[in-house]
Amino acid sequence: MHFSVKTFYSLSVAFVFLFSCNPEKSYTDISPTERLDPSRMDAPYPEVPIPESADLTSPRWKGIDLSPLAPLVPLSAKEEQKTFVLQPGYSMTPILTEPQIKEPAAIQFDGNGRMYVLELRSYMQDIDAVGELLPSSRISRWEDKDNDGIYEEGVIFLDSLVFPRFVVPFGPGTILSMESNEDEVYKYTDTNNDGKADKKELFASGLGRSGNVEHQTSFLTWAMDNWMYSTYNSKRIRWTPDGVIQEPTGNPYGQWGVTQDNYGQVWFQDGAGGVPRNFNFPIVYGNFNVKEEFQKDFRIPFSLVKLADFEPGMRETKPDGSLNNVTGSAGSDVFRGDRLPKALINQYFYGEPVGRIVRQVYSDKKEGITSIQNQYLDIESEFIQSTDPFFRPTDMATAPDGTLYIVDMYRGIIQEGNWTQDGSYLRTKILQYQMDDVIENGRIWRVTYDGMSRDKKQPKMFEESAAELVEHLEHPNGWWRDKAQQLLILRQDHSVASDLVKMAKNSTNELARIHALWTLEGLGLLKKELVLSFLVDKNVNIRIQGLRASETLYKYGEKSLEKSYNEMTLDADPSVVIQALQSAYVLKITGFEEMLEKANQSNQAKGVQLVTEQLLENIAEAKKLAATQYTPADLVLYNQGKTIFDSYCATCHGVKGLGTPTGAAGGQLIAPAFSGSPRVQGHPEYIVKTLLHGLTGAIEGKEYEGVMIAMNSNDNQYIASVASYIRNEFGNSGSFVTPEYVAKIRKETEQKDGNYQYDALLAEVPKALAPQDSWRVTASSTSLQGVGSTRDPSYVFGFKGWKTDENQKNGSWFQVELPKAAALTEIAFETGNEMNPRKFKVSVSLDGKQWTEVAQAKGMQGANTVSWNHNTEAKFLKIENLEDADKPWGMRKLNLYAR
Questions:
Q1: In angstroms, what CA-CA distances link 394 with 131, 269, 350, 670?
Q2: Which of 140, 560, 614, 627 is deepest in the core (most CB within 10 A)?
Q3: Is the peptide bond preceding residue 44 cis, with omega within 30 degrees of 0?
Q4: What is the per-residue pLDDT across 201-238, written as a single tens digit (0 to 9) for each?
Q5: Strands 695-696 and 756-757
Q6: Where are the alpha helices (DSSP H) in 54-205?
Q7: What is the CA 817 to chain-centroid distance, rounded?
Q8: What is the rounded CA–CA span in Å between residue 782 and residue 26?
Q9: Bridge partners of 856?
Q10: Cβ atoms of residues 403 and 476 within 8 Å
Q11: Integer CA distances (angstroms), 863 to 352, 646, 832, 866, 894, in order
């Protein structure tokens, strides 16, 4: 089914697709060639010269053939279907194609089985990546209304995005997403059920990074342990009823793809590295160098496309012109469905779009260490191959119907513009085959197996009761189990506690027991007795899950579990021993270092030896880092703050800053968590005023048992140390608070009588104004900021940043015009690479003509904050450079604060 042209144009304004019921021609029959210039097929064909900079004797260029050739011709989905070479019994069927979707890069499903598609519509629309950072990408949502297996009805759920990094369905009509070069994850909700998000709320900060679009955070993923993981970030975040918290992790090293297996082990897909990463142990315990994790010849792909059209050039080309080393992998899934052969369950799949293959990976675990191999290495093949050079698998997912879906971007260029510039090897091959004009396509395929039909029961979890969701925890399809667990936790419905405990204890389904355990953990209802029963279970996987879940109880004060961690290091199974040691290590239980040393001496299993040796090395490195991580003055504040917190604050706020549980039923806290708190990490005035004068009443609508009493009887050093410690522990990252700053706030609020109420305090604290499209940002000059960028000074608010097109000079300026006046009181920004303004002034204005200077400062490398006491309303803010320098002036992550 397809939408008519008339319908498309009339309703694109409303961001809704409607479809005609009698298509003249199926979309799967339409070839992209119908949208291409027909003259591309005319001879003579382009003669592509060897770049002057090319060294034809180097491994990259030696043997290159740039003979004029006819252009490659893209195929319709129906014709592409014929090019797949599959293992016996398997088939692939298109279920959604262009023009309904364009440039699909990832998919996710919500609780009613609706498929969200991440459409990166600005990705490499020409060979120079022009416009790649324009707000032209979108997230669409699709449904199979008539249950015929084809997703025929869609809406544009979220439009005008700058290269979004992921889509996470997060309950009814709600998703999470983040744009490129930004640091914030936002929650988008459709409040009126029209299919379009109309409400945007900050969900979490601190997850972004800058760089080209292939090297930024992607695939935020809710895992079985109720934490969310993403590529590039050495941290994990978690939704709780009290807000989002975070914890540090190892470096995931992933690039495009995050998934988990049936036991909650998260796998990260490397991009340029071409292989999965960090699949041996949970990333929260750090990174481990496992030399034998890739079996011999794992990196060799078996591609049927023989064009030598990849960036490594001739050095990674087989004699037949195909790829000889995995180099550009993307997208991944551990298949956990029930409508493909059982041999596929819990096996890892990932795409290699440069090689035009999808690989199936089997795992072999010995002595606590997992090694992996291509399932079809012995016959020199892959799970999916294609002879079509435009087949570009970028994601895959276990679907609600129990099968496997493959996302195919179907395009010519699959490498970011940094690698297609003038003089590059890849550019010559793209031009030789005229691949740069094959854009704006995309197909999603369903993989099926002979004799195994898809599950036609469509999920309706949003309409189901909590008791019905609990039943799905026993479903044979892991997608159903994961989604039911997530929705139960988001609902925070404690009425099913007894059902979950019964399932965790008595179910004959191992995976149902595990999901019930983690659902209880996510509801704040997990009890020590259940955990202890898991630790003595005869099933190895159950014992491991019990150890992992017990960590939450320990963090909330159940110190008696230290005995269990010690006992479990004597388990007969190396994997259980490893888990006990890793839990003890991450929790820093009493004597954990001695535990590691003892296990290293007594247990010779390879996995135990590897883990203990590397954790002991990590401990030694951490001790060295602790001595140099902070300046001497900051270190004094940090250490003093830790002493005060441990002896006083932890009673209510928890030993790990997660809050102390209270209430007979559990799930309540004496005081709010500090971990990941935007209030704690935000403007320091909030925490200093709270410490000085106390805080009572509801916080963001939630009541706590405890009351924060005033601490103003303590000196400024005391207040500064506590504030600094809390802002830089528990996974937090904030500026240190000086005693001088505390003295300033103490003086300004000396007439304050009684505790603050939350809303009143919030009204006093300067608030960061969220950048809006209606802000007009200008500058005396603006430089391009990499491939795909434009001369847009508004990049200043993100990681990419802004810089002048010339060296610093007196009089150069940067200006922001707001749509309406605000009581501006402070600015903050970051600089690097010696691009800090040597000296600058800040001025404000109501009309952009009459200016008032409010501050002068010297710019510093790193973080800069300038505040002033002039609380006059202003629509314009100007930062003006006052000195020349031999470097450009640059800023990023600019924040404007107003009272």
A1: 21, 11, 8, 46
A2: 140
A3: yes
A4: 999 988 887 778 888 899 999 999 999 999 988 899 99
A5: parallel
A6: 77-81
A7: 32
A8: 47
A9: 841
A10: no
A11: 40, 29, 9, 10, 10
